[in-house]
Design brief:
The chain has 33 helices and two strands. It is mainly α and about 750 residues long.
Length: about 750
């Protein structure tokens, strides 16, 4: 959305809208002026008389108090009084006494106090000209001074009466309050909301206060959402701003962002429409030709995309592109192209024609964003990894040159995702840790956006597949605290349900696994179907697994990585299915291998080699089986989770022992292989996958039985019996390669 400044003469054509409404002098603003006036008097007296104890700490506390009073909207006098006497912002006792004396004088002396105030402010500005030339206090004084200069006598009388009523009502409330502690609790709750407000009175937001609030909250939603107001409180503040400034379009746009993170689609659409309606009305006061309609279509497309309405989003993108072409808006075209890459990965082809287009500095952000979107879409179409990393480096250069912290973080997290897709999980983990340990600060504020969330989710899953479920849960809990709401919460919710389903499958807790898979469906349909198929296969529900895999493989929109994983599960299914031949399994694995080779999925290629080895071993082709498992052994041990590591170690030992024909040679080999089997056992036990532990014990007991070594056979048979008594398993679940 274009960030144009709201013209101050915006409401000249509305019968109930005054151009100076934003500069109305209220009793609260008058009280703030009295506070500043008495502070300056006390400061001057303290400088002249060292006996007056007015410390640096007192001055610092008042400056922080004044900053809050100027930035936040009007509050009732009882809330102001509670703030002035609070431990955090409380003012000097002499300062408080003089302020109360001045407020009482306003009631006893009469309107003359306001007439004198005009000359007092003029004198204060003149005497402190060097201090208030550019400061916010000087600006505040000048605005009050100009407002007083424009007021006529009836307005002076209304201000005087309102100020007296404001003070009397506030003091009555303070006097009848039950205790000072209740006031402090009320103060803390008000401060936690980010504003101080008397519910019985109308909140007065000036132009600058509204702009500051919207700018601060918008920046927090983008860079550090956890520090922003919660949705309910923010909407309350925005309703107050809209009530005072009906044509302030940025407030409606922030309301739209607030509704999006609450998943409130209807209010989000309504706020977005109102935002651009107000932008159009604002532009009409300056020109009859408004060229910002394309941004309305673009934001509507983004809104539909966030709610997974891809058809409506693409239609809005097309409208945006047509409007942007008519108006020759390069920035909007770049942004539309980036979102088109995200919404429709089949259309964009990898190109660098726009990378060198830097005619306008404002295009840099959209160019960098476009590069990242193109790299993401091109990664699933089989482009060379080196080429993708080279182009992503150009995005890094642009981001660093212009200090775009959000895109720097997104680029690192995207690089981590690419490494994970290509099977280099250790490198991916290092990239995520590099991002989390980077000092991503801009203007003293730490970035806490999408890139950080993706890195934390990546580490959460990596810890889980390494069997560190407690550490994974700790990182996940931290991620939930840092990103509590949509859309960033979607990432950790996917990670949470995926890890829960995976852990439940290992433990053979079918109800919990099924629940996690179904909860995953609304977040990631393809991943949910994949996990449900894995669950059905683990339960030996072959018919259900076949239906789920057919549904997944028939979908042309799934990514190559997901398709390869689905084909691997299909090969598992056919392996344990009695009516399937070995050649049919080999055909499925060859299809998966072709896709993995085309898309540089090295880790999946290693898993396919492991499956080939298992098939060859069952066909008694032991030498070919050993050769196949060696092809993928190093990759799996270097980059895999402990479940895959345990399986490949177990298979490797079986292939080594199967190659040897003589009992003497077998006995010599088993001595070298036992450490590998112990490692596999420790991995399975760490995952609580006791059915695979039993498989290892059965294999060892059978092996020693064939060699007629009774003592060793009984040893592993006893271990199997202990595990079986503690974690009973049906016989059909044993001896499964899955």
């Amino acid at each position: 959305m274009s960030a144009k400044k709201e013209p101050e003469t915006i409401g000249f054509w509305l019968p109930n809208q005054s151009a100076t409404k934003m500069d109305v002098l209220t009793p609260h603003k008058l009280a703030v002026v009295f506070l500043i006036q008495e502070y300056l008097s006390l400061k001057k007296a303290a400088d002249e008389n060292p006996q007056i104890q007015f410390t640096v700490r007192d001055r610092r506390k008042f400056c922080m108090l004044l900053l809050k009073l100027i930035q936040y909207p009007d509050m009732a006098f009882k809330d102001l009084y509670g703030l002035l006497t609070s431990p955090v912002y409380g003012i000097h006792q002499t300062h408080m006494d003089e302020f109360e004396r001045l407020m009482k004088m306003l009631k006893t002396v009469g309107i003359e106090v306001l007439f004198d105030l005009y000359s007092i402010i003029d004198k204060l500005i003149t005497e402190n000209a060097s201090s208030y030339q550019i400061g916010i206090v000087g600006l505040y004084f000048r605005r009050v001074y100009v407002t007083l200069d424009k007021m006529n006598f009836p307005e002076f009388m209304a201000l005087y009466r309102n100020s007296v009523a404001y003070y009397e009502k506030g003091m009555r409330t303070v006097l009848i309050s039950s205790s000072a502690s209740s006031n402090n609790e009320s103060l803390m709750s008000l401060e936690a909301q980010g504003a101080y407000k008397d519910k019985s009175s109308t909140c007065k937001w000036s132009t600058k206060q509204s702009e500051l609030f919207v700018a601060q909250q918008s920046a927090l939603l983008q860079n550090n959402e956890v520090d922003a107001l919660n949705p309910k409180d923010m909407q309350t503040r925005l309703n107050e701003i809209v009530h005072d400034h009906p044509l302030y379009s940025q407030a409606y746009f922030l309301s739209y962002l607030n509704s999006v993170r609450s998943r409130d689609f209807f209010n989000a659409v309504d706020a977005l429409h109102r935002s651009f309606d107000r932008s159009t009305l604002n532009a009409m006061s300056l020109t009859q030709d408004n060229k910002d309609y394309q941004y309305s279509a673009l934001n509507l497309a983004i809104l539909h995309a966030l709610f997974n309405h891809n058809g409506e989003a693409l239609a809005s993108i097309k409208e945006c592109i047509m409007l942007a072409q008519e108006n020759s808006d390069k920035i909007c075209l770049q942004l539309a192209h980036s979102w088109l890459c995200i919404l429709d990965a089949s259309k964009p082809q990898f190109t660098e024609k726009n990378i060198a287009n830097k005619e306008l500095i404002t295009l840099v952000h959209s160019i960098s964003l476009g590069i990242q979107a193109l790299v993401k879409s091109s990664a699933s179409t089989g482009y060379t990894p080196a080429k993708l990393f080279e182009v992503l480096l150009k995005s890094d250069i642009l981001n660093c040159q212009t200090s775009m912290i959000d895109l720097i973080a997104n680029a690192i997290s995207e690089r981590a995702a690419l490494w994970a897709m290509y099977g280099k999980n250790e490198v991916s983990s290092l990239c995520s840790q590099l991002l989390l340990n980077s000092d991503l600060k801009s203007l003293g504020k730490t970035y806490n956006g999408e890139g950080i969330c993706q890195a934390l989710c990546s580490l959460t899953i990596w810890l889980a597949i390494q069997g560190e479920f407690n550490l994974s849960l700790t990182v996940l809990k931290h991620t939930k605290e840092r990103f509590p709401r949509y859309p960033l919460s979607k990432s950790w919710m996917i990670a949470d349900h995926y890890i829960s389903s995976m852990q439940a499958i290992f433990r053979r807790e079918w109800t919990e696994a099924s629940s996690a898979c179904y909860q995953l469906y609304t977040l990631d349909k393809h991943l949910s179907l994949l996990q449900r198929a894995r669950l059905a296969l683990a339960r030996l529900n072959l018919k259900s697994a076949d239906q789920l895999l057919c549904q997944l493989l028939d979908d042309e929109t799934i990514e190559p990585l997901t398709r390869v994983k689905a084909l691997l599960l299909k090969a598992h299914l056919q392996t344990i299915s009695p009516e399937m031949t070995r050649m049919e399994v080999v055909n499925v694995l060859n299809e998966a291998l072709a896709i993995a080779s085309k898309n540089y999925l090295d880790y999946e290629k290693a898993l396919i080699e492991m499956h080939f080895s298992h098939i060859l071993l069952t066909m008694k082709l032991v030498h070919q089986a050993l050769k196949a498992v060696k092809n993928g052994l190093e990759n799996i041990l270097a980059n895999g989770g402990i479940y895959d590591k345990a399986r490949v170690l177990f298979l490797f030992v079986k292939c080594i022992l199967a190659v040897e024909q003589e009992p003497v040679n077998k006995l010599a080999k088993i001595g070298k292989c036992l450490p590998m089997l112990d490692q596999a056992l420790s991995y399975f036990q760490k995952l609580e996958c006791y059915v695979k532990v039993k498989d290892v014990y059965i294999f060892l007991a059978t092996f020693y039985h064939e060699l007629q070594m009774t003592e060793e056979r009984n040893k592993y048979a006893y271990k199997y019996r202990q595990i079986e008594e503690q974690y009973p398993t049906a016989k059909e679940y044993l001896h499964m390669f899955f």
